[in-house]
Predict the structure.
Amino acid sequence: MPEHTDDGPIGPVDASLVPRYGGESTFARLPRLDQVSHADVALLGVPFDSGVSYRPGARFGPGHIRQSSRLLRPFDPALRAEPFAEQQVVDAGDVVCNPFDIKAAIEAIDLAASDLLGRGTKVVALGGDHTIALAMLRALARRHGPVAVLHFDAHLDTWETYFGEPYTHGTPFRRAAEEGLLDERRCAHVGIRGPLYSSLDLQQDEQLGFQVFTADDVEGRGAADVARGVRARLGDGPVYVSIDIDVLDPAHAPGTGTPEVGGLSSRELLVILRGLAGMEIVGADVVEVSPSYDHAEITGIAAANVAYTLLSLLALNSRPDSGG
Ligand SMILES: N=C(N)NCCCC(=O)O
Ligand SMILES: [Zn+2]
Ligand SMILES: [Zn+2]
């Protein structure tokens, strides 16, 4: 087990000494929050899926992503980063979310994230359905003011209500805009595709401040160029990165609740994420992993590597010369 040390960050359990398929299932076999004196970044499990409109099961996402993260290694060659050595990363366990009271669950998530932020710890939330992004944005906007949102998803998630209900996984970014949590000059969706309810969906989405990079844009322009477009849209200042795993094609992420054909490959998503190097990421989530629809951990492994790439980006920002 990792122990407190003054010699720098406590990393994952060494897979060359302890088999990686055994032992406690923290993210990447990292220490728990209670095993360190200070954490720079925490993975926060959010087992909540009472906001879904179709297939359930994302409440089991955090455990599945942790299990699927056992093969991650300490050095990220694509970003030339050591995400677990350059900063103290921990697993902060799971938020206790009331499955029968969505508002109360959002408040509990906000509180847990705010508590970590107050201790100087950045939060990468592992969902859970996309409702949880609203809670994260409330916590972040309280500290930073309105933030840019970079949203990877097949879906806009700026719809008005479902069954008259305002807090669902299809509505978090409309609620966030209404609450003044977003810097509406600096928001974007990436990976949008699939049937909508009406052409008004896109018009209203634009009015809320989002620029759309579709899945077809990724195919046509290429992932690296879409990353350049995103950087141009978001500019400087705090960014929240929200990653619905259904941005990936169902072939790359079958284990999700509202799958849409024609999505990104996991490689394309990773290329776009790496293209964000140097942007001021203040928080992030990886959501909508629903393990009972997964096969061979395809979706879980994708989500684990996406989270790992976010940690690498945060490691780059933590370097003394990064200005971040
Ligand atoms: N956030 C996700 N994954 N999906 C939203 C889809 C909402 C709908 O059923 O129209
Ligand atoms: Zn989605
Ligand atoms: Zn979504």
User: Anything to note?
Assistant: The chain has a mean pLDDT of 97.
